Amino acid sequence: MNLTDLLKSIEIDSSSHNGLTTELDKIDIKKIAYHSKEVETDTLFVCIKGYETDGHNYAKHAVSQGATVMIVEQYIEDIAILQLKVSDSREALAVLSSNFFGNPSKSMTLFGVTATNGKTTIIGIVEEIFKAYQLKSGLIGTILVKIDKDIEMSQLTTPESYHLQKHFAKMRDRDITHVSMEVSSSALELKRVYYTDFDVVAFMNISPEHIKLHKSFDAYFDAKASLIRNASKTSTAILNFDEPLLIPLEKETKAQVITFGVENKSGTIAVSNIRFLAGIPLFTVTIQKPFSTLSGKRIDTTSFDLEISVPGYHSIYNALTGLIVGLVNDIPLADVQRGIKNFRGVERRFQILYDKEFKVIDDLLLNQNNIDSCMETISHLDYNELHLVHAIRGNNGPEHSIEIAESLAKWFHKIAVTKIILTTASSHVDKKDEVTKEELATFLKVMKQNKIEVTFFEELEEALQFGVEQLSENDSLLISGAHSMDQGAKKTLELVKKIHPIVDHEKINQVLENKFIGKDSSKLAERILKFSLES
Counting C-beta atoms within 10 Å of the first and last residue's C-beta, which end of the chain has fewer, N or C? Predict the structure, then answer.
């Protein structure tokens, strides 16, 4: 691609020609890279300053690999290629990437959601709504990237800008018309979605999680809020008015704003008549104020019932977000309702793995909001005894361990749980994610203070086996934890078949077959191929 065209909308502070006289429009760029190992002949190399490494330190290696132009934030001595200096190389990478692939996000209707909890579930609901209306759709999230019938596993919740634009380009070339994606706070902070053309954006909830990158809660909030604040006047922004911090954002964006609440009834949409059947809510939705679709059609005030298929009070919020996205996209209400009803949940987000003689449930329990949502859902279920196997999350500091332990203990008293099975899952974490002695000690201290009996196992397999052995008819087993529990569902269900042979093996095998998380690479490849052929 011609360098002049590639640099459109990028503000170049200055350039270091080093005696070069070649005109920019005569330089042909065949590739963009931000890792020197990815550089080939005729590559434009972007020097990005990271938290652990600085791309400027690899500039000379990039030149030796064939880089012909370099984007820098500071000039590098003894480099015999054109250097273009910018104030923010991450921002430049996002624009360059979009230009390189022909600004693909403009070729589709794009929905992006940010939240501490629920992003993966929400885009899953939206995907089902798109499918119900028979749209060719794409999805970019924590678990996978889906392009029509093709999928690949995700490396980041929101890919780096170059890879994100590459995904969009593939989608455009496959005639994808509608895309839903998760937008993490780090992606917003690190400009991964800069210069991306969103049609609908949503900010659903926030709690003190993931603030390591941002240094403070205020910075974390501002990163997420930028998705709303930077929305264009032709787009629509969705806000959850039950989150008080989000209310002021209604007046801080050019976008059309649609608000909703379950407890706060002042928004565009309100909820009433909530009932629970086996933990699954059914409720009435009232559109209190008219709003416009992306095509300019008016959605008038009305009321209707909304039925979903996943349990939990928090599921109401997720379903409402999907509802609004569907309606704003000019999808008929009947198709939106059908898509929401078709959604059966996502892996490791209050996923019911087995529900016959007893229940087996898998959830993350990563923060207070997550715990509140999970335990509130469990409070609506019928069971004799609840058994919990929890894998502590490491490398987050003792303060995080205290927060998790106190949140769990609060709910244990509410739902009459007196014991917990605990593990550090030592063989299932990288060194950087190992649980420290202090993190374990603070967790145990909180449990002791709250008179919660703890059975501790260092290894995941031992903890899960003990948990499965405790199961009796009409009991529930909850397995929880971060990455160290990703293998938990598979191991638990295999133990269930072994220890309780009367269970429905066919049903369990079907769940195991459909899993992505925790599958070994060869089995995962087979599953991805099977998913692509079936979809």
Answer: C
351-523 maps to CATH 3.40.50.2300: no
Give the pLDDT mean for 496-508.
96
Residues paired with residue 200 on neighbouring β-strands, in sequence order: 111, 236
| Dihedral of the alpha carbons of 140, 143, 147, 151, in degrees to the nearest 10 | 160
Helices (H), 416-459: 437-449
Q: Do residues 404 and 371 make contact, with C-beta atoms less than 8 angstroms apart?
A: yes
pLDDT bracket for residue 528 (50, 70, 90): very low
Structure tokens at 46: 């972007």
Q: Of 486, 534, 483, 478, nearest to 510 (Cα)?
A: 534
Question: What is the DSSP code (8-state) at residue 57?
Answer: G
pLDDT(168) > 70: yes
pLDDT per residue as tens digits for the range 219-231: 999 999 999 999 9
Q: Which two three-digit tokens encode residue 385?
A: 């005894």
Residue 151 forms beta bridges with which residues? Answer: 146
Q: Phi and psi at residue 153, in whole multiples of 5°?
A: -75, 145
Question: Could you give the residue ranges of the DSSP H alpha helices within 353-436?
Answer: 368-378, 398-414
User: Does the pLDDT at position 533 exceed 70?
Assistant: no
Check residue 364 and report its DSSP letter.
-
User: How far does the chain reach from its first CA to its final CA, in angstroms?
Assistant: 36
Token couple for 83 = 């250097």
CATH of domain 102-342: 3.40.1190.10
Tell me which CATH code domain 3-100 carries.
Answer: 3.40.1390.10
Q: Helix, strand or coil for residue 409?
A: helix
Q: How far apart are CA 63 and CA 40, in angstroms?
A: 9
Q: Angle, nearest 10°, between helix axes 314-328 and 368-378?
A: 100
